[in-house]
Design a protein that fits this description.
Layout lengths: L8 E12 L2 E13 L4 E5 L6 H8 L7 E10 L2 E2 L5 H7 L4 E4 L13 H10 L6 H14 L5 H4 L9 H13 L5 E5 L7 H18 L2 E6 L2 H5 L4 E6 L2 E7 H6 L4 H8 L39 H5 L5 E4 L5 E4 L11
Parallel strand pairs: 3-8, 3-9, 6-7, 7-8
Antiparallel strand pairs: 1-2, 1-4, 4-5, 9-10, 10-12, 11-12
C-alpha cells in the first residue's frame, strides 16, 4: 500500500476483553493494522492467540461477557467501534462479510439455497426477486459451482463439504462487500479443494477490489495468497510485514517457531520440530513477554519487561513491525 493511499480498514489499539468470574481475559490487547482495497492480510497464530476474536470484533459479533473496551475500527473512514446493533446489522453483509470455518454457521439446513441467497440480497437492497436470483446465480458461478441455476434449488445437505463452503463464500460476495473476513474457511477441506478456493479468493480480490482478512494457523496457506502478514500471540500482534519479508526472514522467535514446525521445513527421517510448551491462558499471562516461557532466546529482561513495538522500513517504503527485546537478525545478503 502506498504512503499516499488511504486504507480501507484501519484498526488502532483494539482491545477486546471478556469479563469473567475468574478475572479479565484480554483476548485482543492493543492490536493495530491496516488493509488496503484489494489487499489480502493473513492473520496468523495458534489457537487461542486472539485472531478470531479480532475478526469478530471488526464485525461487531462479540457478545457478553466479551466487549470492545478501547481502540478504533475505521472502515472507509467510518468508526465502527461503539456502533449499536442496528447500525452494525446494516453494515454486515453489505459492507463487511464473514466466512466461517463451518459453512453451516452461514447456511440454514431447512431452507433451500435460493431462499437464503435471495433473502441476503433483499435485506440490504430494494431489487426485484428475479434480479436477486440472477445475482445469486452469478455468485455461485464465481466460486465454481457447476449448473448454478439448478443448484440454487437444492438444500445444504445435498452439497459436499467443499461445495457448502463455496456456497457460504458466494453468500459473502452477494452484496459486493468492500471487506471480507475469512475465519479458517478451508481448514476442514482436502488440499485440492483448499487450493482451488484460495485461488478463487485471490482472483476475486484482484478483480473486484474487495479487501480480505484471512485468519489461519498455517503460514503456508497465506504464502501464495496474502500481500501482508500479521502474526498474533496471546492477544497481540508480535510481527507484521509483507508476506515475503516474514516468510524469508522472521524477526520474532515465535514466527520462526511457526515456520520451523511446518512439515516442509523438516529433514526427512527426523521428527517434526515444534514450539515447546503451549499457548498461555489469556486470563493468566506470564509477566514480561508472553512468549518468554517458550522462547529459546529469552533473558531476564524478557521475563520481567513487556517489549514495545519496534519497526523498520524495508525497500519500497514497506514498514515492518515486531514486538521483541531480542529480534532475530536478518540473514546477510
Amino acid at each position: 500500500m502506498s504512503a499516499s493511499s488511504e486504507p480501507l480498514l484501519k484498526v488502532t489499539d483494539l482491545a477486546t476483553h471478556f469479563i469473567t468470574r475468574a478475572g479479565t481475559v484480554k483476548a485482543v490487547d492493543g492490536v493495530s493494522f491496516e488493509v488496503a482495497r484489494g489487499e489480502v492480510l493473513g492473520l496468523v497464530g495458534e489457537s487461542g492467540s486472539g485472531k478470531s476474536v479480532t475478526g469478530y470484533s471488526i464485525l461487531g459479533l462479540v457478545d457478553p461477557p466479551g466487549q470492545i473496551v478501547s481502540g478504533s475500527i475505521r472502515l472507509s473512514g467510518r468508526e465502527l467501534a461503539g456502533l449499536d446493533d442496528e447500525a452494525m446489522r446494516s453494515i454486515r453483509g453489505r459492507e463487511i462479510a464473514m466466512i466461517f470455518q463451518d459453512p453451516m454457521m452461514t447456511l440454514n439446513p431447512v431452507l433451500r439455497i435460493d431462499t437464503q441467497m435471495i433473502e441476503a440480497i433483499l435485506a440490504h437492497e430494494r431489487v426485484s426477486e428475479r434480479a436477486a436470483r440472477d445475482r445469486a446465480v452469478e455468485a455461485l458461478q464465481k466460486v465454481g459451482i457447476p449448473s448454478p441455476r439448478e443448484r440454487l434449488e437444492a438444500y445444504p445437505h445435498q452439497f459436499s463439504g467443499g461445495m457448502r463452503q463455496r456456497v457460504a463464500i458466494a453468500i459473502a460476495l452477494l452484496n459486493r462487500p468492500s471487506l471480507i473476513v475469512a475465519d479458517e474457511p478451508t481448514t476442514a477441506l482436502d488440499v485440492t479443494i483448499q487450493s482451488q478456493i484460495l485461488a478463487e479468493m485471490q482472483a476475486l480480490c484482484r478483480d473486484t477490489g474487495t479487501a480480505l482478512i484471512w485468519i489461519t494457523h498455517d503460514l503456508t496457506v497465506i504464502a501464495g495468497l496474502a500481500q501482508q502478514v500479521a502474526v498474533m500471540y496471546a492477544g497481540r500482534i508480535v510481527e507484521r510485514a509483507g508476506v515475503d519479508a516474514v516468510l524469508d526472514a522472521p524477526r520474532h522467535p515465535y514466527t520462526e517457531g511457526l515456520l520451523g514446525s511446518l512439515p516442509s521445513a523438516a529433514t526427512p527421517g527426523e521428527p517434526l520440530r515444534q514450539i515447546p510448551g503451549s499457548t498461555p491462558s489469556l486470563g493468566r499471562l506470564p509477566p514480561g513477554c508472553a512468549f518468554s516461557p517458550r522462547c529459546a532466546y529469552a533473558t531476564a529482561q524478557c521475563r520481567t519487561e513487556a517489549p514495545e513495538v519496534s519497526g523498520q522500513t524495508l525497500g519500497g517504503g514497506v514498514e515492518r513491525q515486531f514486538r521483541c527485546h531480542h529480534p532475530l537478525q536478518e540473514p546477510s545478503r
